[in-house]
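S.,

Sequence below, as promised.
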Amino acid sequence: MRPMKYSIAIVLAVCLSQGSKGASAAPVPPTGIDVVWAYAGVWKVETEHLDTAQSKAGHEKTTLRNACWKNGAYLACNQYVDGDSKILIVFTYDAKAKVYTSYQIPLGGGEPGSGKLLIEGDVWTFPWKIAEGDKITYYRVVNVFRAHDRIEYRQEFSPDNVHWTVMAKGTETKVASAESAQSPITLP
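The prediction came back faster than expected:
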């Protein structure tokens, strides 16, 4: 009988040790440029536009698909709105300054743009400004990640970069991951 008890004890110990090896640790959160991968995939977007000096009231529903890929330190997303490719956005990250930069390349050879992406936890802000003569108007889009698949956002403007007026607000809900929307391409 003794050999049987030892056999059961050994089998139990092996099973327990295998179970602990098979248990997965908490996923490591992405860092650097990989953080931006959160935008990849298909999103249902609902926007409420407000009547302001910079916007007209209205309601809009769209489907946004960010077909993204990464190559080295660059992450690019071809952004589709309701099935039509609209703009290519290329993201970079300066690790020393902890600053993201986005470069927007429009279709048809239009003038490209660039801007910053400021990430503070779950709040991602895209600020920019437009100068008309001596007058500068500041703008920003603020994305608040409520979950990995839900963003609440607002578009705002300000004459002084302190007092902000909301032009639009809405939600983005991810309905398909990047893998199901289009396989991501990672090049060496």
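The chain is about 15% helix and 55% strand.

Coffee later?
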